[in-house]
């Protein structure tokens, strides 16, 4: 940079771009800061769009966090809506921009690329129907709600949502809240594909309770256009009539212009260093269009989340204005959360699939604690999954679903991952306790205790997904009560309540006939007690992680005998 007032040009508003612009102004009052936004709105609450469609956010203006006029008055930012960057010349440090009054060239001293992502449009016949829409902009949300509220013959009554990711679920619920019949279609085996199947199962059940029909593990094959409606044809032959089809199958980085100008990209996402710099001089990039390095696995992937985008924009501005003190951009851990009906589902860090892809050996802990003290009115159970690295117990990822308390535990575990904590460290966390808010042994502390037992060999686990081959080579020992056993149990299981086990070890020895014993209970607590007794009595023993609560979610009720 020279001593003259620097010009910072930012392409793309909303999260990364506006965060960078605001931070740059706070650090340098003399800089000329120009923000170019292709759409009509900058700094809008894109995460709030489904809630506007559903009517929970009543006023569309609530979605507009800032306007160009407000940004000019508060921060002296030159924000230009309806201006699209159509070319970049890194040699002359100029950007060609198309606006309402034609094309112009803007020079820059520093350029920040925050173009975001665009909705993926798979090559489905009929997807060009006017009844197909997305939910990416304020205008998308406003138009969809206007159509819902139109009334009469123009009213929307049936919707098909293609894609059951976070936005797809929020959109499906919003449409259902407005009284539409809703079908939700997902190619992956279950809704919210980043979730483990045992965490996704309660979410799918909640969607069905809301009246949303879920079609998982099946692809949409085509869209047929008719005079009064469209029909989505699924690969299995099912036909879903729709007045509106909401496309939410994912996004891709919007980088074609910049890749053509020489910005290094991989799978369409821009490559940056630890300070957000691209391979071109004085050109930075942040947000959904950037390839991030996963903090857990080291795998490279775009992370389309508002939090990391906002933080990256801020830190890029730091590096432009005062590089000597700028901190590097942290690798994201991918913390995300969604409300579905009365449930909350959240995740942070790596899931099992990512750990397998990265070749990281891990143990998975399943717990079913209540969100606060069980004796205090209103206690409700959550399902909590924590992945720890085999050998040292390093916390690698966590997921949870429940009615209350999920956000708190996932946020604590996200912090633990960022801090490099092990399971043993979780035990020592001094978390707020009152019967109204938690337990003396918080679910996070409990996860640490279970994880430490696994690491030091006090506890050996077996998993519900291994049931089919384990039933042939092991004795399955059910230590629940008689009533629980009669309500549903795994075929061939030997039933001995844990309180009777000490007096019936000979019975177990005879039934096992030298085979390993795999114990189970309701949630994993009683089977751990049984496992310790069996191990110290000479048996090859393990306890079912998460007990029958997890087994039902993984295997389904059809796998049980009553």
CATH class of the largest domain: Alpha Beta
The unreliable regions are none
3D shape: globular
Number of domains: 4
Assign the CATH superfamily of the largest domain: FAD/NAD(P)-binding domain
The number of E-state strands comes to 32
Across the major sheet, the strand order is: 3-2-1-7-20
Distance between the termini: 75 Å
How many helices does DSSP assign?
A: 17
Could you tell me the radius of gyration in angstroms?
A: 27 Å
Work out the helicity level: 25-40%
Instruction: Give the DSSP E fraction (strand runs of 2 or more residues).
Output: 25-35%
Query: Would you identify the CATH architecture of the largest domain?
Result: 3-Layer(bba) Sandwich
Structural class: alpha/beta
Major beta sheet summary: 5 strands, parallel
> What is the mean predicted local confidence, pLDDT?
94
Might you state the CATH topology name of the largest domain? FAD/NAD(P)-binding domain
């Amino acid at each position: 940079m020279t001593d003259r007032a620097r010009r910072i040009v930012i392409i793309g508003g909303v999260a990364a771009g506006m965060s960078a612009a605001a931070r740059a102004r706070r650090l340098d009052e003399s800089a000329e800061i120009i923000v170019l936004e292709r759409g009509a709105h900058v700094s809008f609450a894109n995460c709030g769009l489904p809630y506007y469609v559903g009517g929970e956010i009543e006023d569309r203006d609530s979605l507009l966090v800032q306007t160009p006029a407000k940004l000019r008055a508060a921060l002296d930012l030159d924000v230009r809506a309806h201006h699209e960057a159509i070319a970049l010349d890194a040699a002359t440090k100029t950007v060609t921009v198309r606006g309402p009054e034609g094309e112009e060239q803007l020079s820059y001293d520093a350029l920040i690329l925050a173009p975001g992502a665009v909705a993926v449009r798979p090559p489905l016949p009929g997807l060009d129907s006017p009844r197909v829409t997305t939910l990416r902009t304020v205008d998308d949300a406003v138009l969809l709600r206007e159509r819902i509220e139109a009334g009469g013959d123009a009213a929307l009554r049936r919707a098909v949502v293609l894609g059951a990711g976070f936005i797809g679920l929020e959109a499906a619920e919003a449409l259902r809240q407005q009284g539409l019949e809703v079908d939700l279609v997902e190619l992956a085996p279950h809704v919210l594909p980043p979730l483990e199947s045992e965490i996704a199962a309660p979410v799918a059940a909640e969607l069905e309770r809301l009246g949303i029909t879920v079609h998982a593990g099946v692809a949409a094959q085509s869209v047929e256009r008719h005079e009064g409606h469209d029909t989505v044809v699924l690969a299995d032959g099912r036909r879903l009539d729709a007045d509106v089809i909401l496309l939410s199958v994912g996004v891709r980085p919007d980088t074609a212009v910049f890749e053509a100008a020489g910005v290094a990209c991989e799978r369409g996402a821009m490559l940056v260093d630890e300070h957000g710099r691209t391979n071109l001089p004085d050109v930075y990039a942040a947000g959904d269009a950037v390839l991030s390095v996963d903090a857990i696995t080291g795998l490279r992937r775009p992370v389309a989340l508002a939090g990391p985008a906002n933080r990256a924009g801020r830190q890029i501005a730091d590096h432009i204005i005062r590089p000597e003190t700028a901190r590097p951009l942290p690798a994201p851990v991918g913390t995300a959360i969604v409300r579905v009906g009365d449930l909350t589902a959240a995740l942070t860090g790596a899931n099992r699939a990512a750990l397998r892809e990265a070749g990281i050996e891990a143990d998975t802990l399943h717990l079913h604690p209540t969100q606060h003290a069980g004796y205090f009115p209103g206690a409700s159970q959550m399902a909590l999954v924590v992945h720890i690295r085999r050998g040292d117990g390093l916390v690698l990822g966590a997921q949870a679903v429940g009615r209350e308390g999920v956000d708190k535990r996932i946020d604590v575990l996200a912090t633990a991952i960022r801090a490099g904590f092990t399971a043993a460290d979780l035990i020592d966390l001094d978390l707020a306790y009152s019967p109204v808010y938690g337990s003396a042994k918080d679910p996070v502390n409990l996860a640490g205790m279970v994880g430490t037992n696994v690491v030091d060999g006090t506890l050996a686990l077996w998993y519900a997904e291994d049931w089919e081959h384990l039933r042939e080579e092991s004795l399955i020992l059910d230590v629940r009560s008689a009533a629980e056993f009669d309500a549903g149990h795994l075929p061939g299981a030997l039933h001995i309540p844990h309180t009777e086990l000490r007096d019936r070890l000979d019975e177990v020895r005879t039934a096992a006939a030298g085979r390993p014993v795999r114990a189970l209970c309701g949630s994993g607590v009683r089977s751990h007690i049984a496992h310790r007794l069996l191990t110290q009595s000479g048996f090859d023993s393990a306890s079912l992680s998460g007990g029958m609560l997890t087994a039902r979610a993984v295997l389904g009720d059809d796998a049980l005998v009553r």
